[in-house]
Structures are given as structure tokens and as C-alpha cells.
Amino acid sequence: MADHRGALDNVLGNVRGGMIPAHIYNDKAIFELEKERLFSRAWVFVAHKSEIPQDGDYVVRRVLDDSFIITRDSKGDVRALFNMCLHRGMQVCRAEMGNASNFRCPYHGWTYRNDGRLTGLPFHREAYGGDEGFPRSSQTLLPAPNLASYNGLIFVNMDPSAQPLEEFLGDFRFYLDFYTKQSHGGLEVRGPQRWRIKANWKIGAENFAGDMYHTPHTHASIVEIGLFREPKAQKRKDGATYWAQCGGGTTYKLPPGDFEQRMRYVGYPDEMIDRIKRVWTPPQQQLVGEDGFMISAASCFPNLSFVHNWPKVLDSADGTDSPDDVLPFISIRLWQPISENETEVCSWFAVDSAAPPEYKKNSYKAYLMCFGSTGMFEQDDVENWVSLTNTAGGAMARRLLLNSRMGLLSDDSPVVDKLPAEAFHGPGYAQVGYNENNQRALLRLWADHVQMPPVSTATTALGTAAII
Amino acid sequence: MSTAQLGKPVGKPLPFNDNRHLQAHQFLVDEAYLLDAQDYETWLDTLTDDIRYLMPVRVTTALGAGFDTSPGMAHFDEDKYSLSRRVARFATEHAWTEDPPSRMRHYITNVRTFACDDDAHLVVQSAELLFRSRGDVNEAALVSCGRHDVLRRCTDQWKLARRTIMVDESVLRMQNLAVFL
Description:
The complex is a heterodimer of chains A (468) and B (181). Chain A is built from 15 helices and 20 strands. With 468 residues, chain A is of the alpha+beta class. Chain A has 2 domains: 105 residues, Rieske [2Fe-2S] iron-sulphur domain (Rieske Iron-sulfur Protein, 3-layer Sandwich), CATH 2.102.10.10; 285 residues, CATH 3.90.380.10. Chain A has an 8-stranded antiparallel sheet with strand order 12-18-17-16-15-14-13-20, sandwiched between helices. In chain A, strands 5-4-3-6 form a 4-stranded antiparallel sheet, with no helix packed on it. A 3-stranded antiparallel sheet of chain A has the order 2-11-10. In chain A, β4 and β5 form a beta hairpin. The mean pLDDT of chain A is 93. Chain B has 181 residues and is α+β, with helices and mostly antiparallel strands. Chain B has one domain: Nuclear Transport Factor 2, Chain: A (Roll). Helices cover 19% and strands 42% of the residues of chain B. Chain B has a 7-stranded mixed sheet. The longest helix of chain B has 18 residues. Chain B is globular and about 45 Å long. The two termini of chain B are 19 Å apart. The model of chain B has no long low-confidence stretch (mean pLDDT 94).
């Protein structure tokens, strides 16, 4: 056991030093530790409020192997109910989405309101002797140990004593707002598209967190067909990466201009810019208007990512390419772990709810062409990640430390200095150019979690006064 | 998101010896060979300029819910321009996902053809199973789907004007859809 711990400490020490033991991307023992220590206490994204706009609306989502019904009850409150009948453990809801006032277990007919309360228990009096045998009125489906939301993003935490969500998100909220708050009404999302890839979940999270370096090469074809002008190597390295507490991301450097001009450059219509100006704080607007950085991809620890790009998606009527034809889209995505070498990607299209219909239509089109199950960016990413995962499963991968030290000299001093506050108005720290600072920051959080003791949990016993 | 109301089927399926059915069936089989061979430039020419190529995201819903696709979300929702961009990408030297290329077999079966209320169109339904193998030992992937197509009579050939692909899985077990169905 001591040897075992020593080996883990060695792995985590290397990770913290920016040298990644390749097997962490395909290692059953590591995955067991992630389940026991990381996902047992992390805030895991499950849904956006706009997916359940009406009372009774629900979607069913998983946190690892646990199924939760994310429902808006008849009073309008959002709940996350463990999808397991209190009696024999059947899933009380076997659909992925819908609208229901009640969930009835198909096994013995126990029935629950959409707020989780047990309301129907066939032959309660005859079989259980009524409330004396089983106090029905006080029972509910197990609620998720912790539930919270930010800008409509709903998160579940399996640790009942987890740090509050807003505290966890902290400074990263500044950047989350760019994606999720473009008007008082906030986002509406569609989807998710769901598909399974034979790749470890961490790879996507790291990629979205800070891998500007891959863009010009992996996505060369996107530039060549005229879909997105920005990833050209020379332009991509002018962007900055930032890290703020629990997450970080990439940006592109925009051509000179003020806030409105730069928002127009990426394709926002004036009426959206007006609404955005009413909800983004002065520093958020300065990041674009003065510093000239526009957010692109980002990841929030552990497995939630975002992307905001502005491709050219419409055929010019006159057959000429006009740079004004670009249009932004936003995607939210979850890298849901299935095993050490398989991930279910859940990818949502997101758009400001107040955006004009034509904008929503074209932004959706932009999303489909670039990301998601058919997206032309995504196609090449996944090919790489599957290949990496495959190779990481062998014996040689245990002998190889992958160099993830880009941006650091051998004495750990930075290749490029951090941007001063007047050149980057966001919280956390940022620097221009290619580096792997964010991937290292994400994996440091990962290492800290994998080293924590397992979360202690209580057992809930229902319908009995006996102490278990 | 509504499927354009083009080519309204009339009556029962055409008999299998009806010339229109034979032509429609041949169209689908010829197309399957183009897709297997990834001869996408030729394939694009078999699509009308106003093609709508739609593959909704399927969702599991309760019996009687009245819907089984994700509202407003698709895997593919394409027109000729977006399809042409996808094809153009494969012609670059940097579409890594298909280099080396997949080995594919598009199995087309259960074909039936309906006449439409106008002579210019046929409705063709088919079942499709795509087998896709990448690399030497990667597990092969399958996609099973039903297709509802509208073919249009153009000067000397039929062309595909509408395709709706109803995939049989909610969660795809394929690393991407860098392929056509």
C-alpha cells in the first residue's frame, strides 16, 4: 500500500511539474481514484435552466453512473432528484426529457410528485399498516447532495458539504458571463448532441482550457476552406490565455477598434451589442474594447467547456468573400467520463434568448458547421484524442513523461511575462502567445483532488425508525 | 426546423416492378457506392441546388409525449453551401479525421417508393446501416437509420432534393459524423 501511494505521489508530482505520465489518459486505477476523490466532490454541470422552462419540464442527466431527474416542479423550483425508486430501486423516469407532474415507478407503482415527494404507495394500509409501518408523507426521492446554479447553468455536487458553487467558480465567473450572459434574459440552449468517443475525458477539458497551439495545425483545413479566418498561426499566437481560479481559456486578438467596432467585427448585430453593454461590467467591456481580446474556448474544472467562435457560414450572394459575413456561435459542452478510455460528449448550442430570430438561425448553422457531432473543427480534434488515448494504455506509456511545460523555462520562470492589469482587465492572470499554462493549472487541480481522501457520506434509510 | 413540404406522397408504395421505383432504387444504390468511395465531388452533383439535408437528434421520450427528436437540434441541418464546405474540407490535405480514410459500407435496404402529387418528384424511404472501420484494430462503428428522401426529376437524371435521416440511437457510438448518410 505504501508503495502504491508512493507511485501515486510520484505521478502527481510529475503532473505538477508539467511532465505528464502518459498513462493517466488511459489507466483504470487512476479512473477509480477520479471517481472516488474528484467527481465525488466536484461541481458537475448537468443542464441549463432554459432546457426546463415550464413547470413540470424535466431532463434526465448523469453524474458518472448516477442518474438524476433535473426537474422544474409545480412551484417553479429546480430540483435534482436521484432517479431511483425508494422501494426496489427502479428508475422512476426512463425518458431523457419531457413534462410530467408525477413519476410513477413501473415496478410496483410507487408515485412521486415532480418535487420528489412520495404521494402514491399502492396498498399502503393493507401492506405496510399505513404510516405506522411506513411513514409515506415524509418521503421523497433522494435529492442530489448539493444543487446550485449560475447564470442558468445548473450544477450538482455529490458532496453535501461542498464549497458553495459561487465560491468555487469565483473569479472565473467574469469569463463565464461572456458566454452565458449577453442580456438580462440570459441564454437559451438546444441539444445536447450526445456521442461517445474512445478518448479520456481530461484531454478535451485540457484542449479547450488553453491549447491555442493546436489550432493552426489541427484546424488548418478550416482556414483553407474559408470557414474561419482567425486560426492562422500568425494570428492565433497574438491571443492571450488566462486562468482564473477554477477555469481558464483562450482569446483572439482583435484588430484595432472600440468595443462596438470589435463586437461588430466578430459579427454581433448592434441590438445585441446594446443589450450586452447593459449586462457586462466595465472591466468585461474593457477586455474587448481596450485590451482587444475576444474569448474563444474555455474550460471550467473538472469537465465543462465552452467555445465562442465567429466563422463565415453564409454563401455570399454576389459570390465574393466579404469579411463582414462572419457570425458568432456559442457551445457548451460536457466531457462526461464513461471509463478511463471512453467519454460521452454532450454538446449544446447556446444563444442569447433575446437575439433576433435570423441571428439565432445563422448562429445555429455556424455551430453545426464547426462543432458538435458533425462539426468540422471537432472532427479532427477527436481523431487526435482517440489516438492519444489508445497509445496511453500500453506499457511504454508508463515510461514516458509527456512534456507539458510550454511557456516555462527550465527554472520554471515564464517564457513570456504576465500581462499587466492595464493590458488585460480580467481577473486571474494572462499572457500572450502559445503556452500550456492552463493545461497545467487544470491538471494541478486534478492532482490536488486525486490526492484528497474519499468523501465520507451518510446512508439514508427510509421508512424506518431503526438506526442503520 | 420544419421539413419543407416538398413532394407529398400519394397512395400506396409503387410496385417493385414500376420503372420509377427501379430508378429510385438504383439512385440510392449508386449513391451508396459514391459514399463508400468518398467520391464526394460526384455526390454533390447528385444533389439539387436547394437540397435540405437533415439529421435530427433523437431523444428517448415517454410513449405519448408526441415527439422523439430534440427540439431545434440536429446533427446535420445542411444546405448546398454547407455541404460543399464539408466536401471542400476533405479535398484539403489537412482533414486529419479521414487521413487515413475510413473503410465504409453503406448498406441500403427496405426501399420503397411513392409517387407524388406532381410528376417531378418521388418520395423514397430506405433503411441504412453504415459500417465504418478506422485504423487496423480500432473497434468498428455502426450507425443505423431510416431515411425519407425526395427525388426530383432533372433533365436527364433524378437528383436528391430533400433527405431526412432518422438515426436509431440517441447517443451515437461513432467518434464523429465526418461521413454522410
